[in-house]
Design a protein that fits this description.
mainly beta; 3 helices; 12 strands; 37% strand
Length: 145
């Protein structure tokens, strides 16, 4: 039986991409409360060799529909079971801390903390919590060049 791994904001982890590359990612929100079945992360770089660099960097953009995004929400199952290996921790920069703010069903949150109700015209101003299945995570990663 595998041990459940703990993870926290700032953790760096590696996601093997189906095309053979390795994505170096960083946890933005390690959600614990009502959203505990999800976490958010950004991709710092995608490398083609086994010796991945765990240096800090800005999050890469990917296209989702008509929008450019840099945050992915997913299930933490692969982090917890060690499929996605945690390789270090670098504190989030102020720019990355700002990505902890997201909206879900018209409500604004910063991580697990509830902030306020949103007006409908504000919805598009914030990242939307939408959990990508592992297949969609692979699609997003494959689109990052």
């Amino acid at each position: 039986m595998r041990m459940r791994k703990k993870y926290t904001e700032g953790d760096l982890f590696i996601v093997p991409v189906k095309d053979g590359r390795m994505a170096v990612c960083q946890v933005i929100c390690a959600l614990k409360g009502r959203f505990k079945k999800a976490f958010s992360f950004g991709v710092i770089r995608i490398e083609s060799n086994e010796t991945v660099s765990v240096d800090d960097g800005d999050f890469l953009q990917y296209s989702y529909g008509k929008r450019e995004c840099s945050v992915i929400f997913a299930s933490p199952a692969y982090l917890r079971d060690g499929t996605w290996k945690i390789v270090g921790n670098i504190p989030l920069t102020p720019e990355k801390e700002a990505l902890r703010v997201f909206q879900c069903a018209g409500h604004l949150y910063c991580g697990d903390e509830y902030i306020r109700n949103l007006q409908i015209d504000e919805y598009s101003q914030f990242i939307t919590l939408g959990v990508a299945g592992f297949e969609l995570v692979q699609i997003h990663l494959s689109e990052i060049k």
